[in-house]
Amino acid sequence: MEKRFIDNCPICSSQEEKVTEQILSVIQKKSYPKNALVFEQEEESKGLFLITKGVVKISKISPSGKEIVLGLLGAGKTFGEGSLLGQDRQADTATTTEPTEVLYLPKKRPADHSRQESTAVSIGGGLFGPLDGKPQ
To answer: For the chain, which domains are there?
Structure first.
């Protein structure tokens, strides 16, 4: 099931089969209830989210403290891309508007032999850099 969503994801679908398999090896399924905070503006950026079911509201808080809704995203849409492009902090807030399921691609892999391995970021030849920790 995850592969179907990865293959239809504009960010992931242009990747070579080997990279897609690497993405699938680190991706995590997450479920959120209605009105759940996925991440908050200025929070540490942690990864990319691909919605498989439900709706996520993307918003910002203005300098005057008002919420500005930037959009509503449904199944097949991604958010949190900035984390894979070197963004240290979330630029906006993501909140579910109904029960929602996502595939989550962490910016860093879980510790493997006490070292962190990056999942991102090569824009020139494709979005995702090596997932095995080896330079290209």
So the answer is: 28-106 (2.60.120.10)
Looking at residue 8, its amino acid is N
23: Cα within 13 Å, side-chain hemisphere: 31
Q: Is 101:52 a contact under the CB 8 Å cutoff?
A: yes
DSSP-derived letter for residue 9 is: -
Q: For the whole model, what pTM was predicted?
A: 0.70
Q: Is the per-residue pLDDT at 124 higher than 60?
A: no
Residue linked to tokens 């824009």: 123
* Class of residue 124 by CB neighbours under 10 A (exposed 0-12, middle 13-18, buried 19+): exposed
DSSP state for residue 45 in the 8-state scheme: P
**In this structure, which amino acid lies at residue 125?**
G
Check pLDDT > 50 for residue 84: yes
